[in-house]
Write a structure and sequence with these properties.
Layout lengths: L2 H7 L3 E4 L8 E3 L9 E4 L3 H9 L4 E4 L11 E4 L3 H12 L4 E4 L2 H9 L9 H4 L6 E4 L2 H7 L3 E3 L6 E5 L4 E6 L2 E7 L5 H8 L13 E5 L5 E2 L6 E5 L3 H10 L4 E2 L3 H6 L4 E4 L3 H16 L5
Helix pairs in contact: 4-7
Protein name: Ferrochelatase
Organism: Campylobacter canadensis
């Protein structure tokens, strides 16, 4: 990109203009190789390091001492506003999809391309289709917004709460791990982009056997579902009958249930189980 065009796009002015005329890419974080980049510096130290690392342009929001007269320094009124101006140009050809909260959570867990609502990160997003749940943020990007809609799907077979056979747009998904609370979201997202159905991780859970040991689905007597997102937690409560709600790991193991819903992390519970196993081997209380 031509540096003069960048200056005009950002509504910036020169603190210093060098003989270099073009940059190859943009940076908002420091890295080892920054040769020929335009770097958005949020403090003087960042600007100095970027100059040493090979940046051709340093963009700042306060006047600073010029460390390297071989590069250009641009002054903007506000770095975030300047990044939004840049994003509006870079996102012209992108499809920005507005999702509701459940669909957005599903998109993140499917590892689809979602915006972080941090313009320093999002301005560098190179994907053609991007998902977001914040209309105000999308409006700042000035891009064409696509509003996701509920699409029709057909449930062929429901083998459990976790696994289903689905027909989406004449495409058959057999015994796919899509929990029922995410079926509509999965259908909506499938209509918009290609989804990798391998290693789906839409929920965190642990199956337990009669000895409170972690086991596989076929040998399980009960299951614990771990969920910290409030809206998903509430949807799980609605969908699951006779679900046991408990966040205390010791109480979970002492109670009789088929399905437990726990507002905690799966890894914390597994660490708790491992600790119990060590205590048992050493002659602990359990």
């Amino acid at each position: 990109m031509d540096i003069e065009n960048l200056k005009n796009l950002l509504q910036a002015k020169y603190l210093h203009k060098s003989s270099l005329s073009k940059i190859n890419f943009f940076c908002t974080e420091l890295k080892k190789d920054m040769k020929a980049c335009a770097f958005f510096a949020y403090d003087k130290k960042q600007a100095s390091i970027a100059a040493l690392q090979g940046a051709y342009v340093i963009i700042v929001q306060e006047e600073i001492k010029i460390d390297d007269f071989d590069i250009s320094y641009l002054l903007v009124d506000d770095l975030d506003k300047a990044l939004f101006r840049l994003a509006r140009m870079l996102f012209i050809e992108k499809k920005l999809v507005l999702l509701n909260e459940i669909d957005f959570i599903c998109a993140k867990r499917l590892r689809l391309n979602t915006l972080s609502l941090d313009i320093k990160k999002d301005v560098l997003n190179n994907e053609e289709i991007v998902f977001c749940n914040n209309l105000e943020y999308l409006n700042k990007l000035g891009a064409n917004i696509v509003y996701a809609k509920n699409v029709n799907y057909k449930q062929i077979k429901n083998s459990s709460f976790f696994y289903q056979d689905l027909m989406l747009d004449d495409k058959f998904f057999q015994n796919i791990f899509v929990p029922q609370i995410f079926t509509q979201s999965f259908a909506n997202l499938n209509a918009l982009t290609n989804i990798n159905i391998k290693d789906l991780e839409l929920l965190d859970f642990v199956f337990l056997n009669d000895f409170n040991q972690s086991t596989n689905f076929g040998q399980a007597r009960r299951v614990i579902i771990f969920e910290e997102e409030q809206i998903v937690y509430e949807e799980l409560q609605k969908a699951l009958k006779n679900v046991f709600l408990c966040d205390d790991f010791k109480n979970i193991l002492e109670n009789n249930f088929n399905i437990c819903l726990c507002k905690n992390k799966k890894n914390n519970f597994l660490d708790f189980l491992n600790t119990l196993n060590v205590e048992n081997k050493d002659g602990g209380l359990w």
